[in-house]
Specification:
The complex is a heterotrimer of chains A (about 300), B (about 575) and C (about 325). With about 300 residues, chain A is mainly α. In chain A, about 75% of the residues lie in helices and about 0% in strands. Chain A has 12 helices and no strands. The longest helix of chain A has about 35 residues. Chain B is built from 18 helices and 26 strands. The N and C termini of chain B lie far apart (about 55 Å). In chain B, the strands form 7 sheets. In chain B, strands 1, 13, 14, 15, 16, 17, 18, 19, 20, 21 and 22 form an 11-stranded mixed sheet that branches. Chain B has a 4-stranded antiparallel sheet with strand order 4-5-12-11, covered by helices on one side. The chains are: A mainly alpha (about 300), B alpha+beta (about 575), C mainly alpha (about 325). At the A-B interface, helix 2, helix 4, helix 5 and helix 6 of A face helix 1, strand 9, helix 8, helix 15 and strand 21 of B. Chain C: InterPro entries: BP-dependent_transpt_permease, MetI-like, MetI-like_sf, OppC_N. Chain C: Belongs to the binding-protein-dependent transport system permease family. Chain C: It is found in: Cell membrane.
Chain lengths: ~300, ~575, ~325
């Protein structure tokens, strides 16, 4: 197991370096640069700016310098937000996105799993159809429409929560539900489908035959076996929602990290692009690592190390 | 069951769609002098020297006070400068400063101005808007100089006059001409004669210079603070300012809080005690927050809601000094033929575009320079004096011109591409014009949308046929619209070149007499509007959301908001 | 004594020899004890026919395709004809879905848009099956080093910002005469199979240690047979769920892509584009977003009904 973890950590670092390098060179291929404006700047001013941020160095040198700084966790200055560094930007934005992310993941799991189980237990009954209806609505109504609808109904219509903004608990509710919409649907559908299969397995019949209560049958025997697809989905999901969603943060005016994944690319703010990309990748590979560990715990038969033939 | 359920859901949808959006007027306590404004985006900086856009200007105008400040007729009025004298050749200005103080209690001096302007011009600060100071004698030379050690030099040139560079560590480094030093203390036309007297020497007579001194880039900074701490603007405790308001809180991408500045020289004129800036980028969200009382003034209004909001008094349409136009690549066939360019220009129904699509009170553009710039005679407008150059929706003339150019009824006219950047508004206008050209002239174009950076790159490199563009004035003078069309001008992305035009712009620059100068600029515009490298479509407007409680709200035609004289009533 | 009618004796062979005679060749027919022969697929089709919702879903899909192909042909309007005098008209008999910001008939535009959106949906589903399922299956089945490398590649593809890739694609394809839809398919093909690969891998990791898989291995079944005939059919539940949930997000991604400039250009508009454009005017003209959104919902319902039916039909343990 120790060898597996060590190997895995090394391959995770490799993944992050590959992502960083690929992003570095691809973003430099994008037309226009950080100082392109509709009102074109005088050539000399652009030269001054490039000199200031060392963008006039040869590309390989910029790459080596960046990677060197990266190893020291120095992500560099933002070209657009001249008084801020990328570390500042992540430090300010990540906690906000993460709070929203935690709530959204709790909602997704806390609503998605029970809905899925309920649907499966009442297969083809009206409850099942209702679950299916909610789930399908959750995936076919995209988050930009969902966000606007929730805001109209609960903020402008019923005055239950503020329309947008950040700072109070009540301002978390709508964006968290918007973020959770798709995952709730996904998880509910996955759980229902896996549950239906598990309920047909012999060991469940055996458990029922032993006279165990339905609740025990489900929670002790069935649940563990339906969690593998849920956990698979949760890995990348957590990485994605914790680092913020552009659409949700834009519509609900939330000062998170998600906006930078789009705006930094539009602004060609190179250091910010790299910073947030590396941050997300690191979280992603770590989550997927946790997912693999969880698999082994959920299903002890799963092994990652080749068994020695004895 | 399923049916009943879906009926319920549809009902919920409909109620939320049609009934849910009731406007609830916010009930405010009597007259708390506090206002919440949506800035619309996070400012890139709060350092006036490196300031570069409207959001930044809207912060700087509250926190700083320049030599002058614009009144609500966009005319410069004394601010930190209490008076000034101008030499006969209109190149030398002597400003006399009043007693004013920084927020740290020290007096605002002429030395602070001299330091601030030279700092903005210094090549190592690399300020984006440094060119706003190129009007000052030696400003451009200093900004483009090369630093060797602690001294600045002119870049060396070879025999042909091309700037010299050398390879150093794999990059091209400009070579300094060590015989030509630029000493900013001597060679740049700004000098503090005493603590209260500032002498400014200009490159050429600049009619609008007193407007420029109200511009953020020309704001003073506290020399004692800034010269010892180049990260001064990163931390609010070091953010020493001299304007009507003091920035006390900035939570990034969320909000800024300003309070009335007790050390401001004109504090009795300031009525607001607190201003909150929000940074809501989504227009629809901003409207929701406005309607639920979370903000009093908003800088953006969703297009589709504008007519309704104007009718209900929740939105106002303010003037904006800008022109929305299409530009043509005149280096490529068939746009190298002026008849073709003119035909495309005439076959557009601008009135239909502004009344049915943009709906923001925009004015159909029948010339290039927009309304709102003063002409030489008092109270006259450059546009009114200049008049219009063509008729809107003049299909008959357009058809005739196209036939003359060899494409009767569009026959044989090649299919071309109309380029614009990602935006629904640009797309709707492009779709409408595409159809007008098809219907009126029988010519076909395909629409091409591109991401902002890709679009800019293609536009700047003449890698297009027809492209959308827009220009917002930098200052209130026709020159800001006209000098961009000089041959090889940085913002002349059309390949168009006209010697007479270039000569007229140069002449206007050197002319002191306002009447002669304006006449020259009118003549220049006339050339532009006979040659048609561009198709003006409409003059911009600036719609804002605003509650009736906000009085004396002032937004300049450049889009800058100044809260100094506003109050709640 | 009378010989049993079904027995026949060969001439010249004495019955008293007591020896049994081989039955004639056609006797096999008589020995059959079941009815018509049944295979995996015919069985599946038979079962899916009994699932009413699946049948409804199937017919809705057929109807959608018919409308997509023939709707714009029979409509009195074209998707691009503008009428600037009659913009933002509420739904009427003349314009059942109303008109848009340029006075175009929204119903015609929705019908026309279905061509793009349905194509995107189908290609996305196909890519999920072809790349996602196979990739995830192979990764899990071979496990160990293979699994580590294949899954780290997935992580890398997850990590690189799609927006950068998409913008680069727009530059790459510029003026190349590549069909705009092909660009969209390539962009979607780059990332849309990733969740599927991970889900299938998770399932197969667990399934391959089950008794039936070990049994298949023990009797020497080849790897690809074990993977594709035994393991993947057992993971069909999560696979179908994933496909049906990836499709709508691909439909909306297409809208985003065309916004960036990758895909069909205006005035052609897909459902995704119509819905996101309509969202801008949602307060005053909600019908503009309502109809394209309903069209997407209806399609999703139809595919899910059919998908569920298929899942039940294809599930090997449900065979009767």
């Amino acid at each position: 197991m120790f060898k597996f973890i060590l190997q895995r950590v090394l391959s995770m670092i490799l993944v992050i370096l590959i992502v960083a390098s690929a992003t570095f060179f691809m973003m430099r291929l994008l037309p226009s640069g950080p100082f392109s404006r509709e009102k074109k700047l005088p050539a000399q001013i652009i030269k001054n700016l490039e000199a200031r941020y060392h963008l006039d160095d040869p590309l390989w040198k910029q790459y080596v310098d960046y990677m060197g700084n990266l190893l020291r966790f120095n992500l560099g200055p933002s070209f657009k937000y001249t008084d801020r560094t990328v570390n500042n930007i992540i430090n300010d934005g990540f906690p906000v996105s993460a709070i929203l992310g935690v709530v959204a993941v709790i909602l997704a799991v806390g609503i998605g799993i029970p809905l899925g189980i309920w649907g499966a237990l009442k297969q083809n009954g009206w409850q099942d159809n209702l679950v299916m209806f909610i789930a399908l609505l959750g995936v076919s109504v995209p988050n930009f429409i969902m966000a606007v609808l929730l805001m109209f109904i609960f903020a402008l219509g019923l005055h239950l929560v503020p329309a947008a903004g950040w700072g109070s608990v009540r301002q978390v509710i709508l964006p968290a539900f918007t973020l959770a919409g798709y995952p709730i649907a996904f998880i509910a559908r996955l759980v229902r489908s896996s549950m239906l299969e598990v309920l047909r397995q012999e060991y469940i019949t055996t458990a029922r035959a032993k006279g165990l209560s339905e609740r025990l049958v489900i929670f002790r025997h069935a649940l563990r076996n339906i969690l593998i697809p849920v956990v698979t989905v949760l890995g990348p999901l957590i990485a994605a929602v914790f680092t913020g969603s552009f659409v949700v943060e834009k519509i609900f005016a939330i000062p998170g990290l998600g906006r930078y994944y789009v705006t930094s690319i539009n602004d060609r703010d190179y250091t910010v692009i790299l910073g947030v990309t590396i941050f997300y990748s690191a979280l992603l590979v770590f989550m997927n690592f946790l997912v693999d560990l969880t698999y082994a715990w959920l299903d002890p038969r799963i092994r990652y190390v080749e068994r020695k033939v004895s | 069951m399923r049916k009943a359920l879906s009926l319920v859901l549809i009902a919920v949808f409909l109620v939320s769609f049609f009934g849910g959006v009731s406007v609830v007027p916010s009930v405010k306590a009597a007259v708390a002098q506090e206002v919440t404004y949506n800035l619309g985006t996070e400012p890139a900086t709060i350092d006036p020297a490196v300031s570069q856009g409207i959001p930044e200007a809207n912060v700087m105008l509250q926190t700083f006070d320049g030599l002058t400040r614009l009144d609500n007729k966009n005319m410069p009025q004394p601010a930190i400068a209490k008076s000034w004298t101008i030499s006969k050749d209109r190149k030398t200005y002597i400003f006399t400063l009043r007693d004013a103080f920084w927020t740290n209690g020290t007096p605002v001096t002429a030395y602070d101005f001299e330091y601030a302007w030279k700092r903005a011009l210094s090549p190592e600060l690399a300020a984006v808007y440094a060119y706003q100071l190129y009007y000052i004698y030696g400003g451009e030379a200093f900004n483009t100089s090369i630093k060797v050690g602690s001294k600045y030099y002119v870049q060396a040139v070879d025999a042909k006059g091309n700037p010299l560079t050398k390879k150093e560590g794999g990059k091209d480094v400009p070579v300094a001409d060590l015989k030509k030093e630029i000493d900013p203390s001597k060679n740049v036309g700004v000098k503090a004669l005493t603590a209260k007297t500032l002498k400014v020497y200009l490159q050429s007579p600049t009619a609008y210079f007193l407007n420029l001194t109200a511009f953020p880039t020309l704001m003073p900074v506290c020399k004692a603070v800034v010269s010892t701490n180049d990260k001064w603007a990163a931390d609010l405790t070091n953010y020493v300012t001299n304007g009507p308001f003091k920035l006390t809180q900035w939570s990034h991408n969320d909000k800024m809080t300003f309070v009335k500045n007790p050390t401001y020289w004109d504090k009795n004129a300031v009525k607001l005690t607190k201003i909150t800036y929000l940074m809501v980028t989504d227009e629809s969200t901003a409207l929701s927050m406005f309607q639920s009382g979370q903000m009093d003034v908003g800088s953006t209004v969703p297009l589709s809601e504008l007519p309704k909001l104007v009718a209900s008094g929740d939105a106002q349409i303010l003037p904006y000094l800008g022109t929305y136009y299409y530009q043509m690549n005149v280096t490529k066939k068939p746009f190298n033929d002026v008849r073709v360019r003119k035909a495309l220009n005439l076959a557009i129904d601008r009135k239909a575009i502004v009344t049915s699509i943009t709906k923001g009170g925009q004015v159909p553009a029948l010339a290039y320079v927009p309304n709102g710039i003063a002409d030489a005679a008092a109270g006259s407008d450059f546009r009114t004096v200049g008049g219009t150059f063509y008729k809107d929706d003049d299909i008959a003339t357009a058809k005739a011109l196209l036939a003359q150019a060899g494409y009767p009824n569009g026959k044989g006219f090649p299919t071309f591409t109309l380029l614009f950047n990602t935006s629904n508004a640009h797309q709707s206008i492009a779709e409408a014009i595409q159809q007008m050209w098809k219907k009126n002239l029988g010519i076909t174009c395909t629409l091409k949308v591109e991401e902002w950076g890709v679009y800019l790159d293609d536009r700047n490199n003449l890698n297009y046929q027809v492209a959308r563009a827009g220009w917002i004035g930098d200052y209130m003078d026709p020159n800001t619209f006209l000098d961009m069309w000089l041959t090889n001008g940085g913002n002349n992305g059309t390949g168009w070149s006209n010697k007479t035009y270039d000569a007229l712009i140069a002449k206007a620059k050197a002319t002191v007499d306002p009447k002669a100068r304006m006449a020259t600029l009118h003549a220049a515009e006339k050339i532009l509007m006979t040659e048609y490298p561009i198709i003006p479509i409409y003059f911009y407007t600036n719609p804002v959301l605003i509650t009736k409680h906000v009085k004396n709200f002032y937004q300049s035609t450049l889009g800058f908001v100044d809260w100094k004289n506003a109050y709640m009533g | 004594m009378a010989a049993p009618t079904t027995w026949q004796f060969k001439e010249g062979v004495t019955p008293d020899a007591g020896s049994f005679v081989p039955a004639p060749k056609n006797s096999g027919e008589l020995e059959q004890i079941t009815g018509r022969p049944t295979t995996y697929w015919s069985d599946a089709i038979r079962r899916i026919r009994r699932n009413k919702l699946a049948v409804v879903g199937f017919w809705i899909i057929i109807a959608l395709f018919v409308i997509a192909i023939f709707g714009p042909m029979v409509s009195p309007y074209s998707y691009e004809d503008q009428d600037l005098e009659n913009t933002f008209q509420s739904p009427t008999l003349q314009h059942p879905f109303g008109t848009d910001q340029l006075g175009r008939d929204q119903m015609t535009r929705v019908m026309y848009g279905s061509r793009i959106s349905l194509a995107v949906g189908i290609v996305c589903a196909a890519l999920n099956f072809l790349i996602g399922v196979t990739y995830g299956g192979i990764s899990a089945y071979f496990g160990g080093r293979v699994d580590d490398i294949m899954m780290r590649i997935v992580d890398i593809l997850y990590g690189i910002p799609t927006l950068i890739i998409v913008i680069l694609l727009t530059v790459l394809f510029k003026d190349k005469g590549v069909s705009p839809l092909v660009n969209v398919f390539i962009a979607i093909g780059l990332t849309y199979w990733l969740p599927m690969a991970r889900i299938v891998r998770g399932e197969i990791l667990s399934l391959k240690e089950r008794e039936f898989a070990l049994a298949a291995k023990t009797i020497g079944a080849p790897n690809n047979r074990i993977l594709f005939k035994h393991l993947i059919p057992n993971a069909m539940g999560p696979i179908i769920v994933t496909v049906t949930l990836e499709v709508p997000s691909a439909i909306f991604t297409e809208a985003f892509l065309s916004y960036i400039g990758l895909g069909v250009s205006a005035p052609v508009a897909s459902w995704g584009v119509l819905a996101s454009d309509g969202t801008e005017a949602i307060r005053s003209f909600p019908y503009l977003v309502l109809f394209p959104a309903l069209a997407i919902c209806l399609t999703m319902f139809a595919f899910n009904f059919l998908g569920d039916g298929l899942r039940d039909a294809l599930d090997p343990r449900l065979r009767q």
